[in-house]
Amino acid sequence: MAINMVQDEAIEVPGAPEMPGLRFRRFRGESDFPAMVGVFNASRAADGLDEVRTVEQMAQGYANLKNSDPYQDLVLIEVDGQVVGYKRIEWWAELDGTHIYSHFGFMLPQVQGKGIGKALIRHSEARLREIAAGHPREKAPLFDTWTVDRQTGLIELLKSEGYEPVRYGYDMVRPDLENIPDMPLPEGIEARPVKPEQYRAIWEAEVEAFKDHWGEAEVEEKDFTRWQNDPMFQPHLWQVAWDGDQVVGMVRNFVNEEENTQFGRKRGYTEYISVRRPWRKRGVARALIARSFKLHKELGMEEAALGVDAQNPNGALQLYESMGFQTRKVWTAFRKPLV
After folding, report:
1. How far is CA 313 from CA 210, 214, 317, in A?
2. What confidence tens digit (pLDDT) does each residue in 284-332 have?
3. Rg (Cα) of the chain, in Å, rounded?
4. Where do the domains of the chain lie?
5. How far is 36 from 55, CA to CA, in rounded Å?
6. Collapsing DSSP states into helix, strand and coil, what is residue 275?
7. Helices marked H in 236-283 — which ranges?
8. Which CATH superfamily is domain 172-331 in?
9. Alpha-carbon gap, residue 116 to 22, rounded angstroms
10. Do domains 22-162 and 172-331 have the same CATH topology?
11. DSSP element (H, E) containing 116
12. Which end of the chain has the smaller Cβ count within 10 Å, N or C?
């Protein structure tokens, strides 16, 4: 990402607390990533989340943004010239036409609870209203943000600002890869190694399969490129089922080596699990998950993890529990009307 210096980089945040050395500024480009990574990792650790980012992963992610311009939509928080937090906004249109205007941020523990977060929520909402003014309003637009269960202060702040919980998600872990069930794919369906020329068909099948999931957004052609540019894009680990030349379903496995090193574990992720409608309720997902367990075990992994929408309409939570996954963290989606 090229550096795009802004002449007046200072940002005014109304309602910010009086704090010596506190200032808000615009994004300067790649030179900000090391400090932002430090904030992200420290913030996640304080919230009890075993999640880390590297500078390379953040740079790749920011090169892949959609409906979010970091030079306009990102605020960095400094105290005495040191970055202590940041907040970013983005938006999307759900499949039913509802426009969602989202904000999220990260701060070092020592500056939390001092009123910065409240001021930045209101600043983010003001910026999102500017963006929303140029969009159609066929459906009532909504502000959106997420919390994890340990963020009790943030949860209370959001409620005081008029946000209400609307959806829950779980981080789940299978604590070992022993006693993997033998679950073959249904007759006529087979799993094949992924080839680059199959990426388009796999992506289109995933988009179709997720259309009935909560919060799914409209897609565009550039999303296919973004999909391939994800930092955890590891197609050699995927389990993809086929019925002839039709993609049936998939588990897009990956291993985050940086997290495993940081936390001294051997975890593989069994994520992006989907089955297209004509092949559901036939044991495809269960078989692909079992195959994924075996794959991760062969790689030397000792546990598996995933995230799930607790209210998934296709019974995903019950499926994952039956496959040995246990809930470790609870996420909550908060929303309120944009007025």
Report:
1. 11, 9, 9
2. 999 999 999 999 999 999 999 999 998 887 789 999 999 999 999 999 9
3. 21
4. 22-162, 172-331
5. 8
6. strand
7. 257-263
8. Gcn5-related N-acetyltransferase (GNAT) (3.40.630.30)
9. 10
10. yes
11. helix 116-132
12. C
The class (CATH top level) of 22-162 is: alpha beta
pLDDT 10s digits, 57-112: 999 999 999 999 999 999 999 999 999 999 999 999 999 999 999 999 999 999 99
The beta-strand segments (E) located in the chain are 22-25, 74-79, 82-93, 99-107, 142-148, 164-174, 190-192, 239-243, 246-254, 267-275, 303-309, 326-337
* Distance (Å) of CA 236 to CA 57, 69, 124, 233: 19, 32, 39, 9
First vs last C-alpha separation in the chain: 34
Q: What angle do CA 303, 227, 322 make, to 5 degrees?
A: 30
Tokens 């550039």: give the residue: 222
Written as one letter, the residue type at 239 is Q
Tokens at residue 246, please?
A: 């039709």
d(C-alpha 107, C-alpha 87), whole Å = 9
Please report which confidence band the pLDDT of residue 123 belongs to, taking 50, 70 and 90 as the band edges.
very high
Q: Using CA atoms, how far apart are residues 195 and 3, in angstroms rounded to an integer?
A: 36
Can you give the length of the chain in residues?
339
pLDDT at residue number 29:
97
Q: What is the rounded CA–CA span in Å between residue 30 and residue 23?
A: 20
**Amino acid type, 256:** N
